What we know:
Blueprint: E1 2-5, H1 31-45, H2 48-54, H3 63-69, E2 77-78, H4 79-82, H5 86-91, H6 98-107, E3 108-112, E4 116-119, E5 123-124, H7 140-154, E6 159-161, H8 165-168, E7 179-187, E8 193-195, H9 198-214, H10 221-230, E9 234-237, E10 243-249, H11 250-253
Parallel strand pairs: 1-3, 1-6, 6-7, 7-10
Antiparallel strand pairs: 2-5, 3-4, 7-8, 9-10
Amino acid sequence: MLLLLPPSETKVQGGTGRSLLLGALSFPELTRVRSRVLSALAELSADPEAAARALKLGPKGLGEIAVNRAVRRSATVPAIDRYTGVLYDALDAATLSTSARAFAAEHLVIQSALFGPVGALDPIPGYRLSHSTSLPGVRLTQTWAGPAGAALSAAGGLVVDLRSEGYAALGPLGEPSHSVYVRVVSVDGDGRRRALNHFNKKTKGLFARALVESGVVLESVDELTAWSEGAGFVLTPGAEPGEWDLLVPEAASAPATGAR
């Protein structure tokens, strides 16, 4: 079983681990592609003006270019601890038990634009790159889709895909019967559903945390839906084959009255 998460634009900087070692990352068959994307990022970072445009950086974000220049030699931390933001705040990896982190190491994968799919405890440095960034000579979707999709599909077992569409395109999966693409939607009293943004990320983080903490290896969609119900989540078939809706009551997703 694999649980796939998107990365986040915001990340913890620094680290205590040794510098990047591509061979230490999960899915070693992707090492050549990783090296190619890293080289393209280094080429982009050599031109600060071009890098600022490509990465959509404002004046306060220009330091990210230096972070990218140092990506091969800077310190690392486990991937699950590198990312921050709404989803990862809800996942709250720092408070997971030792057994939950061990389960995550086996079953949780994060889809990076720079490194492709990486394991939860893979040591990675800080960087700035999104799935939509244009790199010199590299189109990320075309570069990653075939190799990363093949690597993920070859892992076998059920795949629970919580990635956003942009990151799912970097590693498309095979038969829907072996994967579940989860969308978070709110539902009102009349049963109408709508996509969410902030609560999409938060709910995915809570769902991922619950699954990692459970330590249960799910082998089928039926087992996933049964587990979800027992864990307090509502998972129902979506509009397309292989898509499932993770429902959030509309009242729970509405901002508090008078919130600032």
